[in-house]
Amino acid sequence: MHIVRSTQVVAGFSAVLFLTPTMIQANEAGFIEDSSLTLNTRMWYSHEVGHKNTFYRAQTSEGPRKVRDRTAWLEGFKLDYVSGFSQGMVGFGLDLSMFSAVALERSKLATAGGSNRLLVDKDGDVVDDWSKVGVAALKVKVADTLIKVGRQQPARTPVMGYSDTRTLPASFDGVSLESHDIEGLTIKSGYFDEATPRTGAGSQDLSPSFGSRLVTSDSIAYAGADYLSKDGWRASAYVSRFDDIWDRQYLGLGNKYTWGGFSTKVQLDAYNTQSSGSEVAGKIDQQAYGLTIAPSYQNHTLRFGLQQIKGDEYFDYVGESNAITLPNIFLSNYNGPNERSYSVNYINDFAAYGVPGFTTSLWYAKGWGIDGTHYNGGANGIYSSVLNQSDESHDEIGTLVTYTVQSGYFKGVNVLSGYAWHHASQYQAEGNVDEFRLIVNAPIKIF
Question: How buried is residue 307: exposed, middle or buried, by Cβ count under 10 Å (0-12/13-18/19+)?
Fold first, then answer.
């Protein structure tokens, strides 16, 4: 299958838009008038405890040491400037963000190598603090179509996005387009060639998230659309090319059904991934499927997820993107080779009890049949670690509590706390881990 590169897609979309008669954007107040400056702070704390055959490795003055506990504790800062748009048929604007993080836990023994939560040097010493330009993008708006060029956080799609699951979010260098000019239809496309990781001060080449060795790609290009019909049907279709690694297609379909006080959301997701180009990550031939059924009554939602990976490698995605739209995404992604999984998740919104902004979630997920013994990626294959996975299984129980202040001086402050217990057979990748997380987000609007 031939996929047009995203730069060509963006140019094509732009040509169509500029050739189409448009109205002057009278609703835009202006570049300065619509500007905002916000300091977003995030305190991140996590404590992991390994069990059975799961250990962490700490660098000490006596050499490497196996430990059971690993702690990450940081404070992150994001100073976000978002401009309005200049007036006229074509509006111009600018997004700028400075990111900074300070490590609050710096002990070699406690941090045990840092994982992807803390930045450590080659000797295992925690980097006390780091800063970087997180966003620096020129934006152009025509009617209801937005084009961004530069370092940015691309709008989430099933094949590309940005991960925001640590102290600071990731970002990417490139160009993106998002259009809402047709009622019910959202068009998204992009082309990116570098990543700025969540934990790190610089940029890096694009690479897969999983693999026994590191390989890189020159670019990720994608295009697709989401459609919401007047009768409630939601449909999505996307294609992407991770240059010289894989081509990927995604289809999604969903609806919401209502009977009196009850409602049920149903969502189907399907991926097809094939290695392409020079296959620097080896041969890939994989399909992934998901089914979500989520009945709700008043403030109670029970969410059921079924998921199937068909292929002898991990369901993988671009590093720092977390671009996976499947139902069973918790502490684990349940994305092992040939893995089947299900989950049950109970969500309660306490607004019904007079506590708006307070929600709880309790889930159980189980994956089984993980089998990579037939993996044959060729000379370039990067998933050779799955060869020892034969009928592996794992499961987890987790709970999450979130509260967002609704009014007053601390309006918008969000507190998230969760605990998960993950148990696995011998060669399942995540191992036997308990993890506690506490995250506090506090936005401070400057203007």
Answer: buried
